[in-house]
Design brief:
The radius of gyration is 16 Å and the shape is globular. Strands 5-9-7-8 form a four-stranded antiparallel sheet, with no helix packed on it. It has a three-stranded antiparallel sheet with strand order 1-6-11, with no helix packed on it. It contains five helices and eleven strands; from the N terminus they run ββααβββαβββααβββ. By secondary structure, the protein is of the alpha+beta class. The mean pLDDT is about 90. The protein is about 20% helix and about 20% strand.
C-alpha cells in the first residue's frame, strides 16, 4: 500500500466491529463511542447536521478520511509549536483506489477557508468548496496547506488545543467502510 495513494482516518481507541461507522450509525450501534465522538462537536453542535447535497445526506452520515499522511500532519504540528504524543496516534490507512467504485458515495471538501468566522458558522448552509471524489484528485491534496499551518501556529500561540484537521481536505464517504480494507499505522 505504501506506493499508492492512501486515505487516513484517526483510529478511535475503542474501535470495534467490522466496519468504520459514520456518526449517525454510531448512535444506535455503539452509543458509548457515539457519546465520546460527539464531545468534539460540543462548541459546534450544528456541524453534524450540515447538509451535503452532493451526497444527499448530512455530515453525520459520512465517515471522514484525510488525504494527508499522518506523518506530514505530525511534522506540521511540531513545526508550529504543538505537541504530538511520544507513543504516537493510531490511524487507519486505506488504499485510495479501493474507493473508485464508490465515487458516487463520496466527495472532497477542499477546506479552503480556515479563517475565523466573524460570526458563528451557519451549519444549515452547505459548504461551497466541495468537489467530486476521484483518487487522481488526491495527488494534489496530500500536503498540509499554508492555511492549516497558520491555524496551528495561531492555536499554539494562544495556548488553545486545536482541532486536528482544520484546513486539511476531508474526503467524505457516505455510509460505513469495511475495516478489512484498512491497516493500522502508528505515527
Amino acid at each position: 500500500m505504501s506506493d499508492r495513494l492512501q486515505l487516513f482516518h484517526w483510529c478511535p481507541p475503542d474501535l470495534r466491529g467490522t466496519d468504520l461507522l459514520p456518526l449517525s450509525d454510531l448512535q444506535s450501534a455503539q452509543p458509548d463511542i457515539h457519546a465520546r465522538a460527539m464531545r468534539k462537536y460540543q462548541n459546534r453542535m450544528g456541524a453534524p447536521q450540515r447538509p451535503l447535497p452532493e451526497l444527499g445526506c448530512v455530515w453525520a452520515d459520512c465517515v471522514m478520511l484525510s488525504p494527508v499522511h499522518p506523518e506530514a500532519l505530525r511534522a506540521a504540528r511540531l513545526e508550529n509549536g504543538l505537541g504530538w504524543p511520544e507513543t504516537g496516534h493510531r490511524f487507519l490507512a486505506f488504499d485510495a483506489a479501493r474507493f473508485d467504485a464508490r465515487a458516487d458515495r463520496m466527495c472532497i471538501w477542499l477546506y479552503s477557508d480556515t479563517a475565523k468566522p466573524t460570526s458563528p458558522p451557519d451549519y444549515s448552509v452547505a459548504m461551497t468548496d466541495v468537489v467530486p471524489y476521484s483518487s487522481e484528485r488526491l495527488e494534489t491534496l496530500g500536503h498540509v496547506s499554508a492555511g492549516a499551518r497558520s491555524y496551528m501556529a495561531e492555536m499554539a500561540q494562544l495556548g488553545t488545543p486545536p482541532l486536528m484537521f482544520v484546513g486539511i481536505p476531508h474526503v467524505l464517504h457516505r455510509g460505513s467502510i469495511p475495516l478489512a480494507w484498512s491497516r493500522t499505522i502508528t505515527v
